[in-house]
C-alpha cells in the first residue's frame, strides 16, 4: 500500500476528529458576520494545476484546503443567506449525510438496508406531504433532476397516446413534437426539455392572472382546446420563485375531464405548504397530478444534493429508466432504483432525509415552515412601513419580493453594497418588468434577530 495512504489509514480516527473540528468551527461561526461574512470577498489565490507527486496526506491536505479556500466559503448553510431558495442542514440531516459517506452504500439495488431506508423515507415524506400511497417516490440530486424525471415519464406517456414507445424508438417516431404548457415555469423546466430532446421552444407560456404568477386557468383551457384533442404536457407550479405564487392545481386537474394531458407539478419548495394547516390549501388537488417534483435540499433542510420525484406511473418510470442491457445487474424490476432513476450507481441520499424526518417529526417540520414564513412576514412588514423600499407582491409564504423606491442606484450596485456589509445575502430578480430583490427564508437557524440584521444590511 502507498505509505501515505497507509499512514492515513492508521490515523483514520484522528483524521475524522480533525474533520469534526473543522466542521464545528465552521458551523459555530456561520451566524456571526464578524467571524465569517455571509458572502465573502472573491478568492485572491491563483488557480493551480499542481498535482502533488507523492501526496501530502490528509492532515496536510486539510491545512492546504484551509489556507486556499476556507475563507471564501459562503454562508449558504447559515441564517442570513436569503438568496435563491437555500435550505441549510439541520443537525440530524448533517449526521445522516456524514454517515452516508462513511457507509458508502450504492443505493441502486435491493441489497442490504439501502432500499428499505429509501422506501421508508419516501413513505414518511408521503405522510408529511399528504400524498397518497399511489405515488411512488425516489430520490434524485435536485429539483432540476426531479422535474427532468417527471417530464421524461410525460414524454413516454405522450408516446403511448400515439402508440409509440419513445424509450425504444425515440422522439422521431412521434407524429408531432410534444407541446408543453405552463404559466410560470422555472428556468430548469426549459433545461429539462432540452435534455429530453423535446426542445426548449416546445414550451408555450400561458397567460397568468393579473398581478400574479399563477396561471390563468381559462387561458390554459383555450390553449388546450386549440390542440384539437392532441395530448400534451402541463407543468403546474406550486411556489414560483419570485413571489411563491401557486397555480390552482385542482382547477387545472379538472380540465383533464375535457382534454388529454399529463399533469406534472413543480413543487420544489412550495410543496411543503402541505405540512401546515395554514398553507395546505395552496396545494389542493396536487394529489391528482401524474408526477411531482419536490426538493429536499431547500425547505426540508438536508444538505445538497437531494430531491424527490413522485409518480403515479411506475410502469412508465421503469420504461424510461430501465437499465436492461447488462446481465450482471439482473432483469429490470421496479424494486431496484437502478431502473427508476437517471443514475445507475447512486449515493444513499435518503439517509439524511430519514434522519431529519425521524429526529424532528411532523411537528418539528411544521415549526420550520411556519417560523420561516413568519420571519418573511416580519421583513415584509418592515419593507411596507419603510420610505426606501416597496413590496412588489404580498408575502405569501417564505419569499419577500421588493424594490427600492428610488431607482438611482442599480440593483446590482445596491446588492454589492449590501453584501459588502457581510451581514446578509440576497439575489436579484425582475418581477413584472421591475428590477427587484428577493429574500427567501428557508433555513431553520434564522431568527427575528437575523431579520433585524438583514434590515440593517438593507440600509447600506
Ligand atoms: C420552483 C423551482 N423549481 C426548480 C428548481 C430547481 O432546483 P434545483 O436547483 O434543486 O435543481 C428551483 C430552484 O430554486 C425552484 O425554485
**What's the tally of helices?**
14
Task: Report the structural category.
Answer: alpha/beta
Report the principal-axis shape.
globular
**Strand proportion:** 5-15%
Largest sheet: 7 strands, mixed
Tell me briefly what this model is.
The protein is of the alpha/beta class and 460 residues long. The protein is built from 14 helices and eleven strands. A hairpin with a 7-residue loop joins strand 8 (389-391) and strand 9 (399-404).
Could you please describe the fold and organization of this structure?
It is a single chain. The protein is about 40% helix and about 10% strand. It has helices at about 5-10, 10-30, 60-70, 90-105, 115-130, 145-160, 165-170, 185-195, 215-225, 250-255, 315-320, 350-385, 410-420, 450-460, and strands at about 135-140, 180, 205, 230-235, 260-265, 290-295, 305-310, 390, 400-405, 425-430, 435-440. A seven-stranded mixed sheet has the order 1-7-6-5-4-2-3, with helices on both faces. A four-stranded antiparallel sheet has the order 8-9-11-10. The longest helix has about 35 residues, at about 350-385. β8 (about 390) and β9 form a beta hairpin. The radius of gyration is 23 Å and the shape is globular. α6 packs across α11 (about 315-320). The chain is an alpha/beta fold. The termini are far apart. It has 14 helices and eleven strands. Pyridoxal-5'-phosphate binds near residues 186 and 295.
Amino acid at each position: 500500500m502507498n505509505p501515505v495512504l497507509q499512514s492515513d489509514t492508521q490515523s483514520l480516527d484522528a483524521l475524522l476528529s480533525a474533520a469534526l473540528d473543522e466542521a464545528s468551527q465552521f458551523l459555530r461561526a456561520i451566524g456571526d458576520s464578524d467571524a465569517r461574512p455571509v458572502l465573502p470577498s472573491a478568492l485572491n489565490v491563483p488557480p493551480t494545476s499542481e498535482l502533488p507527486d507523492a501526496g501530502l496526506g490528509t492532515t496536510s491536505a486539510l491545512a492546504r484546503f484551509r489556507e486556499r479556500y476556507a475563507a471564501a466559503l459562503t454562508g449558504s448553510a447559515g441564517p442570513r443567506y436569503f438568496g435563491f431558495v437555500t435550505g441549510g442542514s439541520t443537525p440530524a440531516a448533517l449526521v445522516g449525510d456524514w454517515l452516508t459517506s462513511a457507509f458508502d452504500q450504492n443505493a441502486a439495488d435491493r441489497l442490504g438496508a439501502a432500499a428499505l431506508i429509501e422506501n421508508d423515507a419516501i413513505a414518511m415524506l408521503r405522510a408529511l406531504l399528504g400524498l397518497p400511497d399511489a405515488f411512488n417516490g425516489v430520490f434524485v440530486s435536485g429539483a432540476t433532476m426531479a422535474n427532468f424525471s417527471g417530464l421524461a415519464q410525460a414524454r413516454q406517456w405522450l408516446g403511448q397516446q400515439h402508440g409509440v414507445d419513445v424509450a425504444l424508438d425515440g422522439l422521431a417516431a412521434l407524429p408531432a413534437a410534444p407541446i408543453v404548457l405552463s404559466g410560470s415555469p422555472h428556468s430548469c423546466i426549459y433545461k429539462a426539455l432540452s435534455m429530453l430532446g423535446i426542445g426548449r421552444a416546445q414550451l408555450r407560456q400561458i397567460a397568468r392572472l393579473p398581478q400574479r404568477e399563477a396561471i390563468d386557468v381559462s387561458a390554459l383551457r383555450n390553449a388546450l382546446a386549440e390542440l384539437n384533442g392532441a395530448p400534451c404536457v402541463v407543468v403546474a407550479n406550486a411556489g414560483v420563485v419570485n413571489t411563491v405564487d401557486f397555480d390552482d392545481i385542482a382547477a387545472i386537474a379538472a380540465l383533464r375531464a375535457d382534454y388529454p394531458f399529463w399533469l406534472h407539478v413543480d413543487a420544489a419548495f412550495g410543496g411543503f405548504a402541505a405540512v401546515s394547516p395554514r398553507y395546505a390549501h395552496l396545494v389542493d388537488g396536487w394529489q391528482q397530478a401524474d408526477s411531482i417534483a419536490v426538493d429536499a435540499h431547500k425547505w426540508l433542510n438536508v444538505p445538497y444534493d437531494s430531491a424527490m420525484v413522485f409518480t403515479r406511473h411506475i410502469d412508465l418510470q421503469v420504461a424510461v429508466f430501465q437499465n436492461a442491457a447488462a446481465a450482471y445487474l439482473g432483469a429490470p424490476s421496479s424494486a431496484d432504483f437502478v431502473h427508476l432513476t437517471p443514475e445507475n450507481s447512486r449515493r444513499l441520499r435518503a439517509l439524511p432525509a430519514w434522519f431529519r424526518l425521524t429526529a424532528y417529526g411532523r411537528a418539528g417540520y411544521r415549526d420550520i415552515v411556519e417560523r420561516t414564513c413568519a420571519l418573511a412576514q416580519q421583513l415584509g412588514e418592515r419593507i411596507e412601513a419603510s420610505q426606501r423600499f416597496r413590496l412588489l407582491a404580498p408575502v405569501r409564504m417564505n419569499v419577500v419580493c421588493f424594490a427600492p423606491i428610488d431607482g438611482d442606484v442599480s440593483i446590482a450596485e445596491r446588492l454589492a453594497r449590501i453584501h459588502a456589509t457581510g451581514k446578509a445575502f440576497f439575489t436579484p430578480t425582475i418581477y413584472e418588468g421591475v428590477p427587484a430583490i428577493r429574500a427567501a427564508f428557508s433555513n431553520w437557524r434564522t431568527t427575528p434577530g437575523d431579520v433585524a440584521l438583514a434590515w440593517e444590511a438593507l440600509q447600506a
